[in-house]
Automatic annotation (TrEMBL):
Full-length numbering of the shown residues: 460 to 743 of 743
Organism: Streptomyces qinzhouensis
Source organism, top-level taxon: Bacteria
Name of this chain's protein: EAL domain-containing protein
Domain EAL: 24-283
Amino acid sequence: RAKARGGNRFELADPELDERAITRHGLTTALPAALERGEFFIEYQPLVHMGDGRVHGAEALVRWSHPQHGVLGPDQFIPLAEHTGLIVPLGRWVLQEAVRQACDWQQHRTESGPLRINVNLSPAQLQHPGLVKDTVAVLERAGLEPGALCLEVTESALIGADEGLLQPLRQLAALGVDIALDDFGTGYSNLANLRRLPVSVLKLDRSFTKGMQQAPVDPVDLKIVEGIVSLAHSLELAVTVEGVETGVQADRLRELGCDTAQGWYYARPGPPDQLHTLSLADAI
Ligand code: C2E
Ligand code: MG
Ligand code: MG
Ligand code: MG
């Protein structure tokens, strides 16, 4: 980044920026070995039925327990893994581990329906030709019914998607796997386009519900969410809301007809036994 300027031939590069670049480089080169050494782990965040407060499943969220940097969140390494292609084996590991965990919950569960598992898919995984085959193999090996799995794809990954990209998702949906449109509302997609996508769930982005954390709730936010819920329901899509942090938010979103919710108000992402405990409790 050093560049010629005036009498000084070189200007010092921004030291912070350099440090970030070095860290990024270090993390990128460490990724493959980290996968082999088993440094990744998954936290599970409960998904709650708004109607009765019951836990109906969980979203798998990957973390990296880095030997020097401590626990890193997905925003710090998923983009790097995407860039280098490691996301494909990493994503496969997450799927395998999360599906295995879901089977484990199902075996121990006594009442209400079986717990479902949501797994995030990144754009590079969507484009990988082995996606359908790998997913089916993971489900079969674990013995989980496809209907217990929901794959989350961001709205922005599907904007302008051609049939070639949608085909694997259609195949998975035909097998009974649910497809959710993640971070919905941030991608400026054409609403009419929704009909064309093989999705059965909209995950409404946190930004829409921020204005509802405390009373008085922003009336425009209410109207927008109300409109999205009614559109989604008329297309027979279920609505999940992300980032529910307060009781005020939960009450309003329930009144607006949202089906399921996820957020710190209910539970933070945590170890798998949290799910087991919560799901056996009456409701949260
Ligand atoms: P996402 O799929 O939209 O996941 C929800 C994010 O919101 C998670 O962040 C979660 O910890 C956070 N969150 C949940 N409840 C609340 C709340 O009440 N308030 C606030 N402020 N935040 C809340 P996290 O775990 O850092 O994950 C970030 C993103 O990384 C995810 O966003 C997802 O896009 C991606 N990601 C996570 N795991 C995987 C994975 O296994 N594969 C891929 N491809 N992407 C992943
Ligand atoms: Mg997600
Ligand atoms: Mg999301
Ligand atoms: Mg989000």
